[in-house]
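name: query_chain
kind: protein
chains: 1
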Amino acid sequence: MAVRGSTAQAEAGTGVPPVRARILAAADTRFYAEGIRAVSADRIIADAEVSKVTFYRHFPTKDDLVVAYLRGRSEWERGFFGRMRAEHAGDPGATLVAIAQSLVDAGCTAGFRGCPFINAAAEYPDPAHPVRQTVAEHRTWFAGMLDELLAELGLTERAAAVDQLVMLRDGAMVAGYLGTDPAPGAETLVAAGRAVVEAARQAE
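structure:
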């Protein structure tokens, strides 16, 4: 669900050891561009220019690295949307429109391969796996943010609307990756989101 940005950006300036940051940056680039299962630990080690001993000191298993990669993406996205909410403080409707615009913009960027969390979930089918749990944690956070914004709009019955908005977000990520022509614009996503909110209002 990362809109833009990366694990490396999320950890910049956070006191993360440079070697660990370099490994994460290499993993972020390879995992997102090529898929997680397709990339071996040896390729990450080569890209990061570290020894195997150093790599495994920071990440005892590849799964540990995958979880760190996803957590970095999650932290970046939380910061991104946090800044967006601050820019539109007191106007939840404008915040939701800005979120929709950012999702559409992301799909137009070079190298966009969809949502890294959806992609990771597709590669790890076991819902009990740490990778899937990390994906679930991020999606729970995103749904919670939407719930807060809908509450600010005055909606009291929000669960169904939140589910629908998350589905719209997922669809936008897939559409952006598939590169449909013509690509759906932000106005399409905003209109669908407004319909969801209006339906929730009428149901109360």
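note: The chain has a mean pLDDT of 90.
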